[in-house]
Amino acid sequence: MTTQGSSARAERLFELLSRGSSSSCLITDLSDIRWLTGFSGSHAWLITHANKMFLITDGRYTEQARAEIATHQANVDVVECRTQAAMISTTKSLTLGASAIQFQDSSMSHQLFCLLQGELGNSLVPLDASSKFLRRIKDDQEIKLIESACLIADQALTQCRGLLSQGLTESDIRDELDYTMRKLGADGPSYDTIVASGPINAARPHHHPTATKIENGHTVIIDVGALVAGYHSDMTRSFVIGPMNAEQSEFYEAVQTAQQAGVATCRPGVLASEVDAACRKVLSEAGLDQYFTHGTGHGVGLQIHEEPFINSSASVILQPGDVVTVEPGLYRGGFGGFRVEDLVVITEHGCRILNTSPKDPTCPPLQLTT
Amino acid sequence: MTTQGSSARAERLFELLSRGSSSSCLITDLSDIRWLTGFSGSHAWLITHANKMFLITDGRYTEQARAEIATHQANVDVVECRTQAAMISTTKSLTLGASAIQFQDSSMSHQLFCLLQGELGNSLVPLDASSKFLRRIKDDQEIKLIESACLIADQALTQCRGLLSQGLTESDIRDELDYTMRKLGADGPSYDTIVASGPINAARPHHHPTATKIENGHTVIIDVGALVAGYHSDMTRSFVIGPMNAEQSEFYEAVQTAQQAGVATCRPGVLASEVDAACRKVLSEAGLDQYFTHGTGHGVGLQIHEEPFINSSASVILQPGDVVTVEPGLYRGGFGGFRVEDLVVITEHGCRILNTSPKDPTCPPLQLTT
Predict the structure, then answer these.
(1) In DSSP terms, which residues pair with B44 in a beta bridge?
(2) Which residues of A touch B59 (CB under 8 A)?
(3) Nearest CB to A294: which of B58, B107, B192?
(4) What is the ipTM, given to two decimal places?
(5) With 80 as the cut, is the pLDDT of residue A3 above it?
(6) How far apart are CA B68 and CA B38, in angstroms?
(7) What pLDDT does residue A370 have?
(8) Class of the A6-133 domain?
């Protein structure tokens, strides 16, 4: 959680490479490339060889890449290639003499792997499995950006939640949330904003907003985050329109308690699976765990879903600088659903919650017009 | 371009499989899965074996998958798996007895390939290279959805283009375009809407909108499309704020003429590279081709960029039902840039332009307040 410049990030990469058989590598994960160089375009490879870094991109991005790399204060040369064949032959000439090239087997297609293996003289060796944790521990600058993104989503929900009682559709609410986040300074939503209402849609954890009208008695799930300088936020709140019935109260109480139990477990040295277990235990004691059909959380940064993942089999140990969601939910067709989610950063002795949206699920009933 | 149901789409897949060594396959490209089954979630594998199709997805999507498959009238069984290990063992049991499994080497990571190769008893064989053309020829239903998406982007630009002369920023214009498209019925923008203004930003073909104010004398590129039921549109118009100078007129004239020449070349039987060459010839004769730094176009459908691609080395022959962009541009740092783009569908004897936005680049000058 210390402030780190681009050179500290390059050091993390070189340290990772030192565990492998070669100091030369080909980075194809665009988020890793952005983290290392500042380049935000949609097409690039990053080569390291003989302690130098090269970014290969196409003509759409050459000028942008040079400017972004300068802003990021990264020490990277930009090479323009207009075809994949040119990218491969450039890779070949930039890595001449390398005994092997380490590559990212989870972000390279099998097709490209076979092509490169045929064309390059050097052998291709997968980077150590820990490479997927390269960006995991966030520095102060990253945490600030994620906090800004959280604040924007919180403010947007505050401004828009009154709309839930105005007879609008799921899509309407989504549109206003996304527009409001941008007016508050976001580059956009951090993922497809979820507004899920009623007995069918709210029972689908990843529902896509539709023209379904939000009605009295509906459970409503709103899952919303903002994007700020490439960094994501992720937050969910759940609501009931008008008076809650007994079953809704029972389900909501269980989810909120489970979420608090999960957050209370978040501290350095804890297994990610223990956070999942803490949530599941509450829901199990309420006799509702069969309706919790997904994992408890995931890391958030330049990707909306990244390491460390929090589920029943996650063997990762939480560390200071991890930024993760805690988001248990309950879903049942015919009933609807609830999910409560905060983004937290692991600190030296526990965790800090980055969202501030209140968790009161009650909304005024719709005024029925005649 | 005939109307086809999901069974006709499955037929296309089975025909493709018949060219390989096995009728069993594992489809991992989510757009192919949506095209075949209607499933729109973010995580699934599709298995075909012994003339049956199975969709494997996780607990977030089980209910949604069943509903979407029913709406699509596809004949697919849904299997829920909560972990990747469960997905692999389910794949193994669903394909028992298959001599080999065909897979998509361009949409499967090398890591997953190695994992599957170790776990499955059957050998993995890449699908024929033509598999990337599976969704290429659009049926009537698909063309209608793409036309709706084009119409929405055209209408949004009509409603918003007056804002260019009001002293707003690139981001402001982007925000209004995206919001307007949704109010007109889009699920959202079809890609990150581009608003690029002035000597630096408009010189970057894939610029991301910033707080840069749009000023008199600026060239402005707006690249905007809508998303409708998973189908994309893609259109670009370029503008000058206030009177155009001689160089701006020269560049704009060249781009617009090149774009017309490209569209005029679009018909069945033509090589995609000929469309690219037609655009490039106009720009070359104007002495400006060094500023055209990208390919001429690409197919559009369930993906914003898909086959057939249109560039100088494209050996694809255009066919009725291809939906492609034609989008030459000129970019020079210090000057800015222009791009003009329409989406066209190849018909029996030529092509039909799907966008209707006028190509007049002139905008009133900003009213300077004191």
Answers:
(1) B57
(2) 205, 293-294
(3) B58
(4) 0.90
(5) no
(6) 5
(7) 52
(8) alpha beta
